[in-house]
Design goal:
The chain is an alpha/beta fold. Strands 6-7-8-3-9-10-12-11 form an eight-stranded mixed sheet, sandwiched between helices. A four-stranded antiparallel sheet has the order 2-1-4-5, with helices on one face. The protein contains 13 helices and twelve strands. Among the domains are: about 100-175, no CATH class; about 250-340, no CATH class.
């Protein structure tokens, strides 16, 4: 069996600070095939964006401790030289950053920035690169691209800046595209257009796609697999259909319960997850989620004393929880799912 296009093995990304060691990513393992989409979900501070920056080699090794393995098309990146990783960025892997206004340089035109990204990896003239930039802006739905190519980022609306970021990221036809909160701060109509556009371009280039978000609704239609992160660790991962139809971790139940749905009765209130995400410097003992978990008393004390392992639940579905799988499935079927379907 061929190796996956992207394989992340026991990835750890820690940041030493005056207050202690920030364990932003702590032993993360996953893989992704060409043409497939992985959705990484979780609350702010769970380690999603730090993971994506680690894959692209964008952490400063002087203030970040990065260990583990990241294999991209059988090339290891963690121990590769910065120059080797830089050559891969843009052509082999690219990223749509969370905030296109701050990610794009305000001093240069949108076209200039796309042209520069293209010429780094292609030995072409400025004229050829400019033509390519106009084609990319047209492909992502920017009106009058031959004129807007000379506009500055502040002259674009939020949705158009996001499209321009996608055009820049896709200008060299990357084989791995990471989209970090690609629809944040966009209205729902533009969100749908952006997600459709990313799906169409993925199909065209057969690229591997990672969508990072806190919103399970964003990945519901796009993702083939879902990775749920909490406190720097994967707490549940598996096929998207399984995660939506038969999740087994209480945190995932909470994410589903706090997501507005159009296919069920309108509830008076959503079902929020109590408490706040943990500090990555002083994680709770045992399971990091136990202070917010209503089912911790059923673990016989393990929830507060022992870190649970990520164990196989069948069919590629893995869960990090002390509750037995049979009990998790019973709770979902008898308690959680009926409430969600009733909109309570």
């Amino acid at each position: 069996m061929a190796d996956p296009f992207l394989k992340v093995q026991d990835l750890k990304i820690h940041f030493p600070t005056d207050d202690g060691l920030v364990r932003s990513v702590d032993g993360l393992t996953f893989s992704l095939e060409r043409g497939k989409t992985l959705g990484i979900v979780g609350e702010s501070g769970s380690g999603k964006s730090v993971t994506s920056l680690g894959i692209l080699g964008l952490h400063n090794k002087r203030n970040a401790q990065v260990s583990g393995e990241i294999w991209l098309d059988n090339q290891e990146l963690v121990n590769a030289s910065p120059e080797d990783v830089r050559k891969l960025r843009g052509q082999k892997m690219a990223m749509i950053f969370q905030d296109p206004l701050s990610a794009m340089h305000p001093f240069y035109t949108v076209g200039h920035q796309i042209i520069e990204a293209y010429r780094v990896h292609h030995n072409v003239s400025k004229k050829v690169a400019r033509k390519h930039a106009i084609e990319m802006l047209n492909r992502v739905g920017i009106p009058q691209p031959d004129r807007r190519v000379d506009d500055y980022p502040h002259q674009f609306s939020g949705g158009m800046r996001q499209r321009a970021m996608i055009a820049m990221a896709l200008s060299c036809d990357p084989e791995l595209l990471i989209a970090d909160e690609p629809t944040t701060a966009l209205d729902v109509t533009v969100q749908a257009q952006i997600l459709d556009l990313m799906h169409d371009l993925q199909q065209e280039f057969n690229s591997a796609l990672i969508i990072i978000t806190h919103d399970l609704g964003v990945v519901a239609e796009l993702a083939d697999d879902i990775l749920v992160m909490y406190g720097g660790k994967a707490i549940e991962q598996g096929p998207a259909q399984t995660i939506f139809e038969a999740p087994e971790h209480p945190y995932t139940w909470g994410l589903l319960g706090s997501m507005p749905r159009m296919d069920r009765p309108v509830a008076d209130r959503l079902m929020p997850i109590p408490g706040s995400p943990p500090s990555l410097i002083n994680l709770p003992s045992g399971c990091a989620f136990h202070p917010r978990c209503a089912y911790e008393p059923q673990t016989g004390g393990l929830g507060t004393t022992m870190v649970p392992e990520l164990t196989e639940a069948g069919g590629g579905h893995r869960v990090r929880c002390h509750l037995p799988s049979t009990e998790r499935r019973r709770i979902w079927a008898e308690e959680i799912k009926p409430k969600l379907e009733a909109g309570q």
